């Protein structure tokens, strides 16, 4: 089952259409955010929707609906989903039809899709995944824009890799769809806020590390450090914490998921109930 | 009047809609190209549509319509436009609904809009324009992707600037919607093919420079050279050749449009008839 909210009403996903005049189609002006449920309760919804609002603002989109109305839409949609399985919510705000020089998108469209949550293959967690390094950074790292053209175009080059890894000038910032973490000499290393999307799961992991006295270094690791690192992992709302065992042709540690990644993944799952709304 | 071709038929632009499931909406997977007319004849149509096809391919979109069918659509649309004014054609290819891991978009949608051509204000040519430098490069410089989020987001920072100027690491590659040229010590300087979109107007200017013995240097100039440059200009199908008099806070030459820019603009206009189809 797949449902969509658009322009004030809920309708089957297949019936939801947007005019070609909308700037999300004309010029890629659109932002989105994901919310997933655990036990049908949305996880960190407020955080996700606040980030969505900031993403909109950084693209010049006037978000007018407000946090409470957006939260209400998410709850309504989840309630309308049949069965008792988990739900994945994708909340989009588009640039709309009008562009005011100077420069705002004053009439955004809102659409929200609701679908059954599909989790990544278990094998990704058991064996770890490979990332494809790319000497580029996203243009607006703080915004969750819809532009995933570079993140998806990698597949024609290296379809075996799970995601791209943005490494502008050889320095690792973030993965195409995830936050990146390296484990080296007992420390967990991840890029600072100004280089990456402020990942929800990322912020929860940082909190867990602090609470459990696991040392954190907030800096962008370099690609040259991969060979001397012990572990690496990526994080995201849906994938949670997933081990990385290869970056391009370089092997991470002994090429197997490691104990610190496993420990953080376990702590993350234990803490989930704290963050449900 | 504004007309659209979509899914096999011509219809009023306002009636053309695309399902939210299309990857152009979901993940910014879409490419486009512009064709303008002179005397109702399309300018460099073959070049533009071949580039469109390459852009699609670099995003993993399977373009199946082919060049002749695309050309025929452009001609049909121009014929359907009322009056005898000039026409601006925007040809889009979307990622479509289906994504095949590995990774292709096998079912693209095609839509083409036809509208009355609106030229930039005369003042831009008479006084020259200002660009807003950005320490970034487009992620896929060779593709004309729909992603203009960075190019448009600049407006909230500096609405007075006409376009952004991509300057990764202080080196000037291209403008947000145009090719960039600097004139220094009697030479015209522009970034090489692998750093920028292969602009149609850019290639015609290069041809004109060669035919008229105006020296060309194919390298990316640095932002530090702006203060010692005599002139600068940007080029594009619609704007043709437009003088640039300021980049950020730096003034180009004496802050007025210069004679070499004017000469190239004049040569360009004289040569237009050669490139009509």
From TrEMBL, chains A, B:
Domain of life: Bacteria
Record keywords, A-Z: Aminotransferase, Transferase
One GO BP: carboxylic acid biosynthetic process
GO molecular function: transaminase activity
Family assignment from sequence similarity: Belongs to the class-IV pyridoxal-phosphate-dependent aminotransferase family.
Protein name from the UniProt record: Branched-chain amino acid aminotransferase
Organism per entry: Dethiosulfovibrio salsuginis
